[in-house]
Amino acid sequence: MTRRILIIEDTPTIARVQKHIAQKVGYEADIAGSLAEAKELISKHSYFCAVVDFILPDAPTGEAVPCTIAADIPTIVMTGNLDETTRNIVEKHPIIDYITKENKQAYQYLEKQLARLPRNEQILVLVVDDSAATRHHICNLLTRHKYQTLEAVDGIDALKVLAENPSIAVIITDNEMPNMNGDELCVEIRRLYSNDEKAVIGISAYDTLHLSTRFLKSGADDYLRKPFNNEEFYCRLSQNVDMLENIKTIRLQANTDYLTKLPNRRYFFGEANSHLKAAKLANTSVSLAMIDIDHFKSINDNYGHDAGDEVLKGLSQCMAKYFEENLVGRFGGEEFAVYFADQDTNESLQRLEKFRLFVEKHSPEFSKDRIKFTLSIGFHNGPVYSLDELIKQADLKLYQAKESGRNKLVN
Ligand SMILES: Nc1nc2c(ncn2[C@@H]2O[C@H](COP(=O)(O)OP(=O)(O)OP(=O)(O)O)[C@@H](O)[C@H]2O)c(=O)[nH]1
Predict the structure, then answer these.
(1) What's the Enzyme Commission number for this chain (predicted)?
(2) With a 6 A CB cut-off, is 235 part of the ligand 1 pocket?
(3) Which of 35, 208, 266, 365 is the most exposed place for a label (fewest CB within 10 A)?
């Protein structure tokens, strides 16, 4: 979904730079050179957010800011300079942020904010406080930046909400609460979830008992003292969210095959092994298929290594769709594996055979050179609870498929 942004700016060069930045991070951008033009655009379109110049020819003292706010458009204010009067006017309005147009960093910061806002829509934040007024205030700050919010009245309630909503990424908690206070909640959260999964920010009005250190030692990632400044709140929150996202990206990269974007051998082994443990306890049989492209070396030899890569990528995309309910992995080269957790054996075999026939017919569509190729598949099902043994058995069947003419499934 493309999001629309309104840029209200009377200096054409600055407006063009802002438009370029917005487009770079995925927005469709409209420029208004005056408040009158902005009003007209607002009457015609719905905007995800706006970047508003504080001084405009027909709005010399920030009149464009209440205009976008009144239209419910999350607003970032850009100002030439931020003297005391301007700051007071700007801070009166529930804006997302204000940026001074001083230097290059200001535009880098704008880009970061514009890229952050759509991502915030996917982030669920739990606000824990026994005061309804404080919960309401913090949730308002969060929704202004497009975060999703949930509320809990104390530590016990927070643990219940967390169990019911596994996608909660950040917990903002007060300390002084009945039943279970903030640092006790932190300890409990860290017993259940790691810092890589969920960030905790502690908030308290009292700092007499070195509460900040107590919060941090109990497992919180950050601490804010009430009453806090909105800017500091947003900065700390986005730093913690950035950290969670960076960890997620690193983990994804570590588990993904660089060329095909399929799970790599490492990830496949981790996932399949944990399922095998459960299968062993339940005494159920397990199934695995090894899939290998026939005569792949000759594809590289005849069409070049890049064409070979294209074939691998095309096949992987197709495999990910075909076996989306199963665990798929690239083991290396032109060898892939599919682990069938809790699936009827006949159903798995039928799916594999259908896939083999599909590739035989449609493989030319995977590459520019319309390279036709086939697959050999080895399948094993049985009460085998060591992954190495399961792979060995499926590999033996794969060898038989190759030896008996290729382009077939052996089980
Ligand atoms: N393009 C490309 N080639 C790769 C990659 N990884 C391995 N290969 C090549 O894959 C080929 C595998 O060849 P072989 O193991 O002889 O197998 P094959 O030609 O498919 O023959 P059969 O399996 O017996 O049908 C080798 O030429 C490798 O260099 C890769 O990431 N990209």
Answers:
(1) 2.7.7.65
(2) no
(3) 208
